[in-house]
Amino acid sequence: MDTSIRTLFRYRELRKTTINTYGLVYHWQGSNPDLKPLLLTAHQDVVPVEPLTVDTWLYPPFSGTWDGKWIWGRGSCDDKPGLIGSLTAIEKLLEKGFKPQRTIVLAFGIDEERGGIVGGTGIRDYLLSAYGPNAFALLIDEGGTLEAHSDGVIATPAVAEKGHFDLRMSISTPGGHSSVPPEHTSIGILAALIAELEANPFTPHLYRNEPYFTALQCQALVDPEMDDELRDLIGKARYSDKALADLEERLFRNPLSRALAGTTQATDIVHGGVKTNALPENAFAIVNHRIAGHSSVSTVKTHIAAVLLPIVKKFNLSLDAFGESLNGELSQKTSGHLKLSDAWGTALEPAPVTPWLKNPAYDLLAGTILNVVKTSARWNNPDIPVIVAPGTMTGNTDTRYYWNLTQNIFRYGHVSRFDKYNGAHTVNEAILADAFIDLIRFFTIVILNADESKIL
Ligand SMILES: [Zn+2]
Description:
- The longest helix has 20 residues.
- This protein has three domains: 260 residues, Zn peptidases (Aminopeptidase, 3-Layer(aba) Sandwich); 117 residues, Alpha-Beta Plaits (2-Layer Sandwich); 50 residues, no CATH class.
- It is built from eleven helices and 18 strands.
- Helices cover 32% and strands 22% of the residues.
- By secondary structure, the protein is of the alpha/beta class.
- A six-stranded mixed β-sheet has the order 1-2-5-3-6-17. A five-stranded mixed β-sheet has the order 11-12-10-14-13, with helices on one face.
- The mean pLDDT is 93.
- Zinc ion binds next to loops.
- Keywords: Hydrolase, Metal-binding, Protease, Zinc.
């Protein structure tokens, strides 16, 4: 039998459902219907390759070249590992004649890189109607990584995902000829509003019950690069409020720590004006926010309105803040109007946090990661210390739509940043083939462990 026919034969053992044409859901029926299915998700789409950068790729970006060490191509780091890794694990299990007790479901989105608005929502609706709410034992999607140090390995499956809010600030003022201008044009006022937001960022905080704090405790145990003073501070912060405040002061000099512990803001788009002899009647800016787990969309909106109100008054503007007029009665004619709104109507609350203490699903995942590292040919060291710590995603994945499918959502790819040649979403995207093999082992072992587990 030639390979293609054999593959087709194996493929038929799974039931395929297409969602919105290209979205894929595969169902592999288990023999025990009492066990909640395992759900593995990934996305098929990739970001584009900027045509001007094609010449700077060492291998053509859609060639999938394996040079003996690296596998090159757009998507090799995001999210072909999750897609091809899980499918290869399934292929191998089929080839070995494995018959699952626990049903396995694979779901592959098509537009994660633009927010999953067709694929993610379609897959959610299908899975909810076909399986019901909270029907899955656990879900694994892309996200958290593993870090290898000389003294051990620390893996951080993400149990939390920050929220998202894009603020649109639209300002309108009377137009006219530039030869007799007012003191401030709409663009000048917009600049003042942006400057005020940047002068009043959200204050990040460490909370002892949040995953980032636990992750710091774990990191202090295994990271040899951490200096002893910081290690000491992290330990003391468990019970001393003074140490917690000192730790915040020290950590928040680093933008990544601030992003993990707090709500961030970034002015990413600004638009206004068409000609140098015409006053701009309209100008707008869009400010991206990633919302911390302890915050919410409404807290962010309230903060923005409060920060901007003095500027609104200073420039004598009328204000529509998310549908509400907040600056009271204006006694005189206003010099313009400011509208604050959700730029694309895509505000997203922070995801519910997957429990990591006394949660069998977390224990199963953590045990799997330990096993995969300790049996890996890459380290060849069954005694290597491995720590699994709860991680936080600063970005979003298709799991934003999957909250009602299971309480046990984990965002994790068993790959470290050193296994990526140049990272995702850029030129020369490549993954180390040995790391990819370990990722396939991860998927295989998590399927086998979930199949045998009595704890889920
Ligand atoms: Zn991705």
